Amino acid sequence: MAAGTSNYWEDLRKQARQLENELDLKLVSFSKLCTSYSHSSVRDGRRDRYSSDTTPLLNGSNQDRMFETMAIEIEQLLARLTGVRDKMAEYTNSAGVPSLNAALMHTLQRHRDILQDYTHEFHKTKANFMAVRERENLMGSVRKDIESYKSGSGVNNRRTELFLKEHDHLRNSDRLIEETISIAMATKENMTSQRGMLKSIQSKMNTLANRFPAVNSLIQRINLRKRRDSLILGGVIGVCTILLLLYAFH
User: What's the pLDDT tens digit per position in 147-187?
Assistant: First the structure.
């Protein structure tokens, strides 16, 4: 029975690790897709000022479809990982498992933290993508209005030029914002890596702390034995000294 439950726990751990690895790869690709979308939208906006080619629109549509597909896949993986996590929690709470098994609880908590981090990262990246797409749609509408106004009237070129300059300023601001977001995401990845290292160090420290009581008990026994040996040696020396003095005076 114990072997069967142990195998069940190991199967759950393998499933969790496999899903976590798949999620990690998917989230990296998802983040790259969102970053490339924002950068390509800036380049396509500049190109649209000088060309009426519809290729950028097709590229944007393809990226939208890729985004929706990857988002659905990631959501499915998160749901599967949540199900495995729930099964692990039920296993630790079952009657046949010791309630004070620290190793099981530590493993379960680690998988909970990983799931929480992946869920937070997915929702944050998705929200950033949606914000970029909404801003791009708004800017595209403004660009169309400007082009329509420019082509329909030849007497307001000065005002149109001002609109275009303002549009360029907004594009530059968007580019700076996207670069800042990219730097922030890279910083987050580094902090996540450092967090994993700190958790590993903390786990080792806890292991050492659990072993300290046995080490302290051993040291105390050694000290007691040394103290006893010192007392015996002192008593022997004292007796020998007294005997020598008695012998000398006699």
Answer: 665 565 554 566 777 778 887 878 887 788 888 788 878 77
Joined tokens for residue 18: 């496999």
Q: Encode the chain in three state secondary structure.
A: CHHHHHHHHHHHHHHHHHHHHHHHHHHHHHHHHHHHHHHHHHHHHHHHCCCCCCHHHHHHHHHHHHHHHHHHHHHHHHHHHHHHHHHHHHHHCCCCCCCCCHHHHHHHHHHHHHHHHHHHHHHHHHHHHHHHHHHHHHHHHHHHHHHHHHHHCCCCHHHHHHHHHHHHHHHHHHHHHHHHHHHHHHHHHHHHHHHHHHHHHHHHHHHHHHHHHHHHHHHHHHHHHHHHHHHHHHHHHHHHHHHHHHHHHC
pLDDT per position as a tens digit, 39-72? 555 455 544 444 444 444 435 567 778 888 999 9
Phi then psi for residue 203, to 5 deg, are -65, -40
pLDDT for the residue 156: 59
Is 0.70 surpassed by the pTM of this model? Answer: no
> Phi then psi for 54, rounded to 5 degrees?
-100, 5
